[in-house]
Amino acid sequence: MAENQVEMIIKVTDVYKKIGNSQILKEINFSIGKGEIVGLVGPNGAGKSTLMKILAGLWAPKPKGECYILGCDVTKEKERIEVLRRASFFIETPALYSKLSGYDNIELYSKLKYGSTFNVKDEINRLAPFFELENNMLKRKAKAYSLGTKQKVGLLQMFIGNPEVLILDEPFNGLDPTVTIKVKELLKTRWRENNITVLISSHILSDIEELCSRIIFIKNGSIILDKNKEELLKSNTVVIFHFTEKEHVDLACRLIKEKLPHVSVETQFNNSIKIHNISSYEDIFNLLQNEGIKVRDIEEQRMSLVDFYKQLYLQ
Ligand SMILES: Nc1ncnc2c1ncn2[C@@H]1O[C@H](COP(=O)(O)OP(=O)(O)OP(=O)(O)O)[C@@H](O)[C@H]1O
């Protein structure tokens, strides 16, 4: 491979998925290079979990499509076994054996994946603090676990044995903020030290914005945008107008919508409005001044992923 050529770790080609008469995925194409952390976002029912199940080899693409991870075809059983050894898949709520303790669940998972001689104990001791999992909790049977604890144990398993690839579907569901912060730090450390490749889906856009260098947006089973995060957010700014009087908020919104229909405007809580899609805010300032609306302050901000998502999906 040439030096400047990035090794493709995940390659999805022309994937379709039909269940019954419903076309769940259409013409899905993307590649993920080594060391990329890619976010997959989209509304409920867009097809994110379906795509991840296909990548995990749990579902076959139908009527057509190809998925390769680490050069292995996930639809071929022998090659899929190689993928399952080198990659970790966190798909939906983790299935733990309820009669086994958390510790024994992790041990069973690890030995099935890496063989009976694998040293699980050291790995668990190293990883447990990131998940705030105390020893006495890990010794309890999984049937006594809360949803969040099951999530923590299931997610801890994903990091056992330094996998090269992580495919994570809604990994932060049900985790408290402390654990979420620690797990994100763990992901970043693994990325820095081992150059792991990650595909992560989440509705928590601030987590995607923090972690991912590239974002794939999906809607009704199709990719509608696949772009580098910095390029996506750097090129767009939002402007916040702060008013001295609360009554002026609605008035300003109505006025902007009427006179400048191409501008997107939304009200904020603190006597202010947020405006997207403008190259200069002078026109708006003049419009408001002419109507006697008193502007206390104007603030320019970099667009957040939430702002971008609103533009892409809600307008
Ligand atoms: N087993 C199934 N049988 C029939 N339809 C299904 C099945 N699983 C998913 N679907 C449908 O496929 C579509 C995509 O579902 P999927 O779970 O992939 O979406 P998602 O983007 O992960 O949504 P969410 O954000 O709600 O998790 C939905 O319309 C869903 O109803």
TrEMBL record:
According to the entry, every stretch annotated as the ABC transporter domain falls at 10-245
Keyword check for Thylakoid, yes or no.
no
Protein family according to the UniProt entry: Belongs to the ABC transporter superfamily.
Q: Which UniProt keywords apply?
A: ATP-binding, Nucleotide-binding, Transport
Q: Which PANTHER family match?
A: ABC TRANSPORTER ATP-BINDING PROTEIN, ABC TRANSPORTER ATP-BINDING PROTEIN NATA
Q: Which organism is it from?
A: Caldicellulosiruptor morganii
GO terms of molecular function: ATP binding
Domain of life here? Bacteria
This chain belongs to which protein, by name?
A: ABC transporter ATP-binding protein
The answer to keyword Nucleotide-binding applying to this record is: yes
| SMART domains listed in its UniProt record | AAA
What the entry lists under Pfam families is as follows: ABC_tran (PF00005)
